[in-house]
Amino acid sequence: DIRMTQSPSTLSASVGDRVTITCRASQSLYNWLAWYQQKPGKAPKLLIYKASTLESGVPSRFSGSGSGTEFTLTINSLQPDDFATYYCQQYHSYSTFGQGTKVEI
Amino acid sequence: EVQLLESGGGLVQPGGSLRLSCAASGFTLRSYAMSWVRQAPGKGQEWVSAISGSDDSTYYADSVKGRFTISRDSSKNTLYLQMNSLRAEDTAVYYCAKGLSVYYRDAFDIWGQGTMVTVSS
Question: Which residues of A touch B46 (CB under 8 A)?
Answer without folding.
Answer: 97
